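Lab notes, practical 5.
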Amino acid sequence: MRRAFFIVGPTATGKSELGADVARKLNAEIVSADAFQIYRGLDLLAAKPEPSTLAKAPHYLTGTTSLHEEMNAEKFRRAALRAIEGINSRGRLAIVVGGSGLYIKALTHGLAPLPTSDPELRERLNAMSLDELHLQLAELDLKTARQIDVKNRRRLVRALEICLVTGKPASKQREQWTVAASLCEAQSAAVIGARHGASHGKADAGVFVFRDREELYERINQRVEAMFEKGVIEEVRASGATSATASQMIGLREIGELLEGRMSLLQCIAEIQQATRRYAKRQLTWFRRQTNFSPINLSILSHNEAVKGVLLRAQRSARESE
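Output from the prediction step:
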């Protein structure tokens, strides 16, 4: 059984620093579960941990993928499992740190079987406007259409593609996730950490960290301003072409419009702050509904208190998985 402990939560909560300090005390190693920090070349925009944080413990899946490469949950899952196996082979605990809910769930539950993309169909769908995609999705799968981010082209296209290829609503596929995950766990040695709380009444091997909303939003606003002070505009200018998945990085479109003279600097900063706050809100909802990790409110703890609390949980989890 692989030994892994999870530290998850919304962006700007302080997961990276917390995870690095816990890992240093445990002589553990970190696997990043962030859909954008996995890319190299846009370190500021992706809010990649500072070099001083990365130096506290070995980190994996941070800056390992070209901006031209497509990423998905299955690719991440395979890479993360290889990293965890390597860490465990050295007799160490793997600490998975991140805020990408689907990537986390790919590790804890496996993935439901979904159809591969159809190049011709994908081309036709990519030629449609966001409104056209959403309207057609609503006709085929109203449940998904009501829940999906209508500004996220990649997710709209994929949901519609699943409907058209399988002849079934994408929401029905997600309802089968739990069954497929159970089969995956029963047939595979890739079970991570402790037993899942949904089946056994216990918390999963990890913590869900969050902050009071006002504090979190202020941290987000300050971080975006700091990105611009450190040179994120020049970073984006030099990045060149990006894949469809990398192009979903928050702020990339806005800074592109700034560089083209179609948006002012103040407007660009404000829009990125707003988009990041919305993303954090979606992350909070996801982790509260989709995981059984122990919640920890970092707004009421000092950093040292939080490190101590997570350290004790990780140590207990490591003992139970031996």
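Observations recorded by the TA: Strands lie at 4-8, 29-32, 59-60, 94-98, 206-210, 294-297. Confidence is low (pLDDT under 50) at residues 178-203.
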